[in-house]
Design goal:
Chain B: One of its GO terms (cellular component) is endoplasmic reticulum. The complex is a heterodimer. Chain A is of the alpha+beta class. Chain A is about 55% helix and about 10% strand. Chain A has 15 helices and twelve strands. Chain B has a domain of about 280 residues: Immunoglobulin-like, CATH 2.60.40. The chains are: A alpha+beta, B alpha+beta.
């Protein structure tokens, strides 16, 4: 294979050298700039403009005067602005250039034919350039060849995995149906037991009541009095505690922790938590104060409670500068109170208007503190200057807080992993794996044996229980309860697995589902101090140390699966939400490279992957190479 | 947790502070003691000055100007003794001289007094160095037609009349006596003479509102004002005027002329402020001061006559335009914080006369490099060499020409100018050479704030040599700007300018090549932590000059020194190209300016036209606005409209803020790419015309981009038209300033008709035409009776067009005649000063086109030759039927056919076109249509 190839190219090179020597003088005027496939078009004595606007004589072909507005009559000169010049570039690939390049003193065609007026001295470099280009092309073809093979395997794997998951989903749905039925039955049973128990209890009570009626009367009144006074105390505590929070709210972390604490002690302080839950969800839900605006609000809050004028001023102006993102046309505003700022602070502050870099040093400090106190505290790593980050940090924190509350409301419907996924992006990448392992008791035990077991067990429990036996057999009852608890917990796990699978399967994985394996993968690229992490169908982030900036959430494929688009990432100060476009190209392994930010907060990256090594493209490349190899001999025939 | 109400409250606070322009950060007149004092006086409320001791000395009129309360005899006999009793006002010295060409100069300064008294600052280096010798007419005698009145002639038909008591100066026509301009007709002349601080002089009341004669507080800044009050104010009346123009720079989106700021029927307004400031997100319509100042005002009226007034003073100036109390007269009030009266009255009578008169005093615009008239691509920031290469390639790939790629502050090593961030730009020379290989150039930014870093050579040298501006206590002034703590070269000092200029040599500026040119930004100067974002007024410059006295000219000196640096670098043979943001009268001699940090909205697009027109009227014709708008992201439609308009700006540059989305012309879909390409192509095809206009400007001071009234001075309809403008005498352009505009009304002045540039359709003159708005172009017309030279072959950059043939577009007027000019030289050197240029006039009459040489026969030692020919002549308005033309000499024939006006795909044949006459532009020839 290798030898004949070499021989052929040697032959080609000799032939082409001859050809070049033979045509060193410029070709005749009539054929200048005309592609071989067009030669016939220009043969007749009267030629039509290709746009049909008029016609011209053969004398007018390449006569340095533009007759056709579309440039038909001047393929070989610069006379028509819309014209195209064809260079044969024997030894390399033919090239069509704008006619504005003809005789402009710059060598554009490697054969130098675009410069024939003698003002520029262009060497014919086609053979060397062509050789390099061919080598490059050959390498590319080699990559494609291997890539196509890998791709075929990958596609097969993806198809199988997809089918498997689909099957699993169907099975799970079926199981869910059955299990749900069992749980319903158990629930019914449980309720009946409870009802029976209640009846029994009431009966007992009635008896006792009757016995003790007189003696108890006084005791009941006493108890009631005590209860009343306790309730009064709880109210007082509530008021006090909200005051305290207003005062102490200067640290955002405190709020978060408070939230968590209250979370934990929900049952004790139900009312108060509800109250705050409302506020939070207000912040989170209401569009206008979502995102951008809610953050300065919190910042403002931070400062307000510190009761420090200087910081207040700095912060307010800072937020004003931020709000300068042209969201409002209003002219009047609170004056910039720069009193008390050091000269340097003032300078930074004013500079920040143009750059968006934050400056107010106190805010900085607050943030530093916050950073120290909270591990979760996310830093915007994009710009090393503080303000915007603290802003971004707050923003994300707020978002997540809002999310957390939101999730809480739906806690029953979603599994913990999914929830987690939203809360802490840093740990979320392999969540699906985690989810899988967590559901191992559902899936790994194989077949429906576990379900059969449960069915049997439930059946036996249900049968064993005798309703007609009074009083209720306590051990039987607890059996039913336990079985109900176990089964419904299984059911909820099953449901969460179903929802995550459904979530996964609803995505568009490409024409051949080839991108299915991407769902559980993340790709990383380290560039200087940042690590970029791209998780297809999920999200992309820029990480520096422990801090992470979200570059975008999965949006969609573009340009027929050549680009992965992530949008709605963390907001940029005075700029758009961050976004990332990952261009896919053929490579032998999945590799993320060349992450770049061509305009502020709009990122691009390249991901090499065998999945892009299309067979058709390989054929095209081979064709191109063949053309390049063959070309000289074609002309030899002429 | 926040209660909901608190959240809402803070939200409101946020929204209300969302305005970008920080009004409170800048002083208004009421917060500016000298302005408040001067503005509070109604006309004729001051006791008047009087003139005494009128005499002729050295060909000029000299006199004493006596303050109201003083007795002439005392003052004259012993003025020195009066300086000992500072409470009594001292007389002033008045000098009047007539200058060649219709100019009257008025100087009023304090009398030289006993030693110890400080001289007031007079701005050096702005007037052409030889103004006095070259221009001053030496008066043989004074007339005295009536008691208490002295007169002398200024130019044929004009004389100066000085009334002694009360003091008034009138420029009037002779012999009719009709006034043209007058000074102190409202009796508002006031001149605060320097005096030692007295016991009891207040230090200002601290809130910025007080009199603040000896100290002023504004916000957190204190101005120590050690020299006390020294302001000057006076009134100037323009007679026979309906409108006044000029005194840039102000954002004017709603008017071309200066709208009245006071008087009956005028909403309360600030005066026009001239104080160079770096204004963040400036409003599109406001009298507040922006980046540059030219204290030159023009007036024009229905009598088709114009006049002008220029006050050479670089301190903060505030100018009121009074609503006319009587028709045909505009009164103005001029107030300045310091300095002297050094004022020039320009008699006109035509508008172009006024421009020539102003140019004879402050200089005509420099002849730019040819490439600088082409399209410039800028962005804050093209990040690295790959980015530069990609953008460069993008233009080629989309066949959009451009000539210059710009690098903003981030290309430097930590904003140390003259350095490179070597991580991003490891090979700056090769990068520039790669561009230069395609005939392209590069511009880098060099700002005046110098990073205070001991390892930075510029800072080291400046510190060691004491080259920085000093603060009030005599230490190097430190301010905050892009690099952090910075100091500012005291560029008022000629020695320091020399030092600065040397920094541009190829040896000194590492990584620079001869194809690199310079951009001066932030030279107001911008000081982020200074009062009003600039330098404190009590900072001290060379010669113990306070910053307040020289503020408006700081950027001018910086521009001058940079321009001189490039001149030196090229051994005096390469024309400098320096773009500056700050400017002053005379900046036109050093390079281009632009309208600073505008915004990507339609109002700013609209504002760009009146702003550039007023810049052009005050000498700064090489000016442009950032195409696309600096702040924000333009919708594609706005961007396209901006390119279509910007293609006619004298300076044509796209620029964008760091935070904006990428905006290279090909990023908005194929259709918009094609529209922008077409706009840029139009500019390139008109480059020969633009270059000819720049030549005209450099000789006559008449701007390239002109208000309609400059060409049609007797058409009242045009006087306040700020939506349309002329490019030279031949093209009229109307912008489209609204989204999805369907139709637009365009007023076409004059008797002759106008031919649409797009399709050659003729429209009648002296009429408004309602035209359908097209997506592919904005309304633009060639005036009948003109000839425009074009080059219709498109190249990567203007450099490759040098040898390309010309197209002449002849638009015939009603008598089937037309004329136009073409100026060509090497496009870069000063050889043209020694005669190395081609200057032709094309005259078409009686079906005959003649090329006439305009260059003087013995114009100099050098010659410029060109083999360029005319490949096509389009004759709009020629009756059909012509088949052939005969060319003399040589008796050659050329065919005539009906051809399109433009070579764009799809354009249809509209006008007789002479094919391939191939006459050389360097030669005399005649072409006769048969």
């Amino acid at each position: 294979m290798r030898k004949p190839h070499l021989r052929l190219s040697l032959l080609v090179s000799c032939v082409s050298l001859l050809w070049i020597a033979a045509f060193a003088t410029p070709p005749p005027r009539e054929s200048l700039g005309i592609a071989p496939q067009d030669e016939n078009y220009f043969r007749s004595s009267v030629i039509k403009c290709k746009d049909g606007s008029k016609q011209f004589t053969r004398d007018q072909l390449n006569d340095e005067f533009c007759d056709c507005p579309d440039g038909t009559d001047e393929p070989g000169t610069s006379a028509c602005p819309g014209g195209k010049f064809y260079c044969r570039n024997v030894g390399h690939a033919p090239l069509t250039i704008f006619s504005s390049r003809v005789n402009d003193g710059i060598c554009d065609c490697c054969d130098g034919t675009d410069e024939y007026d003698g003002k520029a001295n262009c060497q014919n470099t086609c053979w060397e350039a062509g050789k390099a280009a061919r080598e490059k092309l050959k390498k590319k073809i080699a990559t494609f060849k291997d890539g196509v093979a890998i791709r075929n395997q990958e596609v097969e794997k993806a198809k199988q995995a997809f089918a498997k998951d689909e099957a699993e989903l169907a099975k799970l749905k079926n199981e869910e149906k059955i299990l749900n039925g069992l749980v319903e039955k158990l629930k019914e049973q449980k309720e009946r037991i409870e009802k029976a128990e209640e009846e029994e209890r009431l009966k007992k009570e009635k008896e006792e009541k009757r016995l003790k009626e007189e003696a108890e009367k006084q005791a009941i009144e006493d108890k009631k009095a005590t209860q009343d006074s306790q309730e009064g105390n709880v109210d007082a505590t509530l008021e006090k505690s909200s005051e305290v929070q207003l005062q102490e709210g200067n640290d955002h972390r405190t709020e978060v922790e408070d939230g968590n604490n209250q979370e934990n002690t929900k049952s004790d302080e139900g009312d108060e938590v509800d109250d705050q839950g409302n506020i939070e969800s207000y912040i989170g839900d209401d569009e206008p104060i979502d995102g951008l605006s809610s953050t300065p609000t919190l910042e403002e809050h931070v400062v307000e409670s510190e009761d420090d004028n200087m910081i207040k001023a700095a912060s307010r102006d800072d937020s004003a500068a931020k709000a300068a993102s042209k969201t409002s046309e209003e002219q009047d505003h609170a004056p910039l109170d720069t009193e008390g700022l050091s000269k340097e602070e003032l300078g930074r502050l004013i500079a920040s208007r143009w750059t968006g870099e934050n400056v107010a040093p106190k805010t900085d400090e607050v943030r530093e503190n916050a950073k120290e106190e909270g591990d979760e505290y996310r830093l915007d790593t994009e710009i090393p200057e503080p303000a915007e980050e603290s802003y971004d940090g707050y923003n994300s924190e707020t978002d997540e807080e809002a999310n957390r509350y939101e999730e809480d409301d739906f806690e029953d419907e979603r599994d913990e992993e999914y929830n987690e996924d939203h809360i802490d992006p840093a740990d979320s990448y392999y969540s699906d794996e985690a989810g899988k392992s967590d559901h191992s008791d559902l899936t790994d035990s194989g077949g429906s044996s576990w379900l059969e077991k449960i069915q049997q067990k439930v059946q036996s429990v249900l049968q064993a229980f005798n309703f007609f036996k009074t009083p209720v057999d306590l051990s039987e009852a607890s059996h039913v309860r336990k079985e109900y608890d176990d089964s419904s917990s299984k059911l909820s796990k099953l449901r969460s697995r179903i929802s995550s699978l459904t979530e996964k399967l609803k995505h568009d994985f490409g024409k051949e589902k080839e991108f299915y394996s991407f769902y559980d993968q993340c790709f990383e690229s380290k560039q200087n101090k940042y690590v970029y992490k791209v998780c297809p169908f999920k999200k992309a982030s820029q990480n520096e140390g422990h801090s992470s900036t979200q570059l975008g959430r999965w949006d969609k494929f573009e340009e027929s699966y050549r680009i992965m688009h992530f949008s709605n990432g963390d907001r940029c100060w005075n700029g758009p939400d961050r976004s990332l476009k990952v261009r896919l190209r053929c490579g032998l392994k999945n590799e993320l490279t060349e992450v770049d930010e061509p305009s502020r907060c709009e990122y691009v990256a390249i991901l090499s992957t065998p999945l892009l090594c299309y067979e058709e493209r390989l054929k095209e490349l081979q064709q191109k190479l063949d053309d390049m190899m063959r070309q000289p001999s074609t002309h030899d025939e002429l | 947790m926040l209660p909901r109400s608190l959240v809402l409250l803070q939200l409101l606070l946020l929204l209300s502070s969302a305005s970008a322009w920080k009004k409170d950060e800048f002083r208004n007149c009421d917060q500016t003691p000298f302005c408040k004092r001067a503005r509070s006086r109604p006309p004729h409320s001051l006791p008047s000055f009087s003139v005494a001791d009128v005499s002729l000395s050295d060909g000029s009129l000299s006199a004493l100007l006596l303050p109201p309360s003083s007795h002439p005899l005392h003052q004259v006999v012993d003025s020195a003794s009066h300086s000992d009793s500072p409470d009594s006002p001292r007389p002033l010295l008045l000098r009047l001289s007539a200058l060649h060409g219709g100019i009257l100069r008025l100087e009023i300064d304090e009398l030289e007094t006993a030693s110890g008294s400080r001289r007031r600052f007079r701005v050096p280096d702005v007037l052409l160095p030889d103004v006095d010798d070259r221009l001053r007419l030496r008066l043989p005698r004074l007339g005295s037609p009536a008691p208490g009145l002295s007169t002398f002639p200024i130019s044929p038909g004009f004389e100066a009349a000085l009334r002694h008591d009360p003091f008034e100066l009138v420029v009037r026509r002779s012999p009719s006596g009709d006034p043209v301009l007058s000074f102190n007709s409202l009796g508002l002349f006031d001149f605060e003479t320097l005096r030692p601080k007295r016991h009891g002089d207040g230090d200002g009341d601290g809130d910025g509102d007080g009199d603040g004669e000896w100290a002023e507080r504004f916000r957190s800044h204190t101005d120590s004002r050690p020299r006390g009050p020294q302001s000057v104010s006076f009134d100037v009346s323009f007679h026979g005027a309906d409108f006044v123009y000029g005194v840039p720079e102000h954002a004017l989106s709603s008017s071309l002329a200066l709208r009245p700021t006071r008087g009956p029927g005028v909403d309360s307004s600030e005066p026009y402020r001239l104080f160079n400031l770096d204004v963040f997100e400036y409003l599109a319509d406001s009298p507040f001061g922006l980046y540059g100042s030219v204290p030159f005002m023009l007036a024009h009226g229905a009598g088709a006559s114009s006049s002008g007034f220029f006050w050479l003073n670089a301190a903060e100036m505030q100018i009121d335009v009074l609503a006319p109390s009587s028709a045909g007269r505009v009164d103005t009030l001029w107030m300045c914080e310091a300095g002297v009266v050094d004022a020039f009255f320009f008699v006109g009578p035509g508008p172009k006369d006024v421009l020539a008169q102003y140019a004879s005093v402050t200089g005509a615009p420099a002849m730019p490099q040819q490439f600088a008239l082409a399209y410039h691509q800028c962005r804050w920031n093209y990040r690295d060499e790959e980015d530069v290469a990609a953008v460069d390639a993008g233009f080629d790939e989309h066949d959009i020409p451009y000539d210059v790629l710009w690098l903003d502050i981030e290309h430097t090593d930590g904003r140390r100018y003259f350095t490179w961030d070597r991580a991003l730009f490891p090979h700056p020379e090769q990068m520039q050479q790669r561009l230069a290989a395609k005939g392209r150039h590069m511009v880098t930014i060099v700002d005046p704030h110098i990073k205070r870093d001991d390892s930075y050579y510029i800072h080291k040298e400046a510190t060691e040599n004491g080259y920085y501006v000093k603060d009030a206590s005599g230490n190097d002034f430190e301010g905050w700007c892009w690099p952090g703590s910075s100091s500012y070269p005291d560029i008022l000092n000629p020695e320091i300018r020399e030092w600065w200029a040397d920094k541009f040599s190829l040896q000194s500026y590492k990584g620079s090549t001869p194809s690199l040119y310079i951009w001066n930004d932030m030279n107001e100067p911008s000081v982020f932590n200074g009062p009003e974002v600039t330098m404190p007024r009590d900072a001290i410059h060379y010669g113990n000059v306070e910053h307040r006295e020289v503020h408006n000219a700081y950027g001018y000196y910086f521009h001058m020194a940079t321009s001189d640096g490039l001149l030196k670098r090229g051994d005096g043979k390469d024309r400098p190209f320096v773009l500056s943001r700050a400017f002053f009268a005379g900046s036109q001699r050093y390079g281009a300016v632009w309208t600073g940090d505008n915004t990507a909205d339609w109002d700013h697009l609209r504002a760009s036209v009146p702003m550039l027109l007023n810049l052009g009227l005050t000498g700064l014709t090489f000016s442009g606005a950032d195409v696309g708008g600096f702040f924000g992201n333009p919708e594609p439609e706005l961007l396209v409209r901006w390119y279509q308009l910007g293609a006619f700006y004298p300076f044509f540059r796209g620029h964008a803020h760091l935070d904006t989305k990428r905006r290279e012309p090909w990023l908005f879909g194929e259709k918009n790419t094609a529209l922008i390409r077409e706009a840029v192509h139009l500019r390139y095809s008109l480059l020969p015309y633009f270059y000819t206009l720049f030549r005209e400007a450099s000789v006559s001071g008449v701007p390239v981009m002109r208000p309609l009234w400059l060409e049609f001075p007797d058409d009242k309809e045009t006087f306040n038209n700020g939506e349309a403008f002329m490019v030279g005498p031949s093209l009229l352009v109307q912008g489209i300033y609204q989204e999805r505009e369907k139709s637009v009304s365009v007023y076409l002045p004059g008797e002759q008709s106008w031919y649409s540039l797009r399709d050659g359709v003729a429209y009648g003159g002296s009429a408004s035409h309602k035209l359908d708005v097209r997506e592919d172009s904005i309304p633009s017309f060639q005036r009948a009776g003109t000839i425009i030279p074009r080059k219709d072959r498109f190249r990567r950059s203007s450099t490759q067009m040098v040898n390309d043939p010309y197209t002449l577009v002849i638009a015939l007027n009603s008598s089937l005649a037309a004329e136009g000019e073409l100026y060509v030289d090497d496009g870069k050197s000063y050889d043209f000063e020694q005669g190395a240029f081609i200057h032709r006039r094309f005259v078409f009459a009686d079906k005959k086109l003649t090329s006439v040489n305009l260059a003087p026969a013995n114009s100099g030692a050098k010659k410029f030759s060109s083999d360029c020919v005319v490949e096509r002549i389009i004759v709009l308005g020629l009756p059909a039927g012509a088949k052939k033309a005969v060319i003399e000499p040589g008796n050659r024939e050329a065919e005539i056919e009906i051809g399109p006006l433009n070579l764009r795909a799809g354009s249809s044949p509209v006008a007789p076109t002479i094919r391939k006459p191939n006459v050389r532009i360097a030669d005399d020839w005649t072409l006769r249509i048969l």
